Amino acid sequence: MNSRYKIKLLIFFSFLSLLSLSLHAQQLKPGDKAPEIQQELITGENFKLSDLRGKVVLIDFWAGWCKPCRKENPEIVKLYKKYKDEEFENGNGFTIVSVSLDFSQKLWKKAIEQDKLEWPYHIGGKMGWKNPAAKKYQVTSIPNSFLVDGDGVIIEVNLRADDLEKTLKKQKKGGFFFFLRN
């Protein structure tokens, strides 16, 4: 084999490797089906994201040690209270699944209590960054979130409170026209 041929083969296989890595590392985006999450809740009960089909769900990746997450929590609580019983174009009601990337269950529970995170879906809290949901959703920083419609399709990603509220307003039945009036 001559050296030019070897170089061409090397370039070709390098290109294939990079292509497969980039395809593997593609981030989830609006329109994608939300990957299933199946873990134990803080209460010890089994949880599956698919059990929430029919609702609009915010999957919120956070941790008790994360200052930006904790700063955002009061706003998320307000939005939960405001929209939990609303009817949306593709979902009845709004709920939140908090996926903690904490390593200490004690500190995780304390943060939930302090921030008054009153929704029932709290998972994680002792696996840190090794949480299977964080891996499936390719979470590399927090806070991070995915808003999912009643069919389990991602509506938006990485919404902060202001943008979350705007998106929820647009998703409400008749919400687009409501959004234009405000």
Draw up the topology in text.
Elements: H1 3-24, E1 38-40, E2 46-48, E3 56-62, H2 67-83, E4 87-88, E5 91-92, E6 94-100, H3 105-114, E7 121-124, H4 132-136, E8 144-148, E9 154-157, H5 161-171, H6 175-181
Parallel strand pairs: 3-6, 6-7
Antiparallel strand pairs: 1-2, 3-8, 4-5, 8-9
Helix pairs in contact: 2-5, 5-6
Give unreliable regions as ranges. 12-25, 177-182
Rg over CA atoms, rounded to whole Å, is 20 Å
- N-end to C-end Cα span: 70 Å
Biggest sheet descriptor: 5 strands, mixed
Number of helices: 6
Number of domain units: 1
Can you name the CATH architecture? 3-Layer(aba) Sandwich
- What percentage of the residues does DSSP assign to strands (E)? 15-25%
Features:
single chain; alpha/beta; Glutaredoxin; two-stranded antiparallel ribbon; 40% helix; disordered C terminus
Describe the fold and architecture.
With 182 residues, the chain is an alpha/beta fold. The protein has one domain: Glutaredoxin (3-Layer(aba) Sandwich). It contains six helices and nine strands, in the order αβββαβββαβαββαα. It has helices at residues 3-24, 67-83, 105-114, 132-136, 161-171, 175-181, and strands at 38-40, 46-48, 56-62, 87-88, 91-92, 94-100, 121-124, 144-148, 154-157. The chain has a five-stranded mixed beta sheet, covered by helices on one side. Strand 1 and strand 2 (46-48) form a beta hairpin. The longest helix is centred in the N-terminal third of the chain and has 22 residues, at 3-24. The protein is globular.
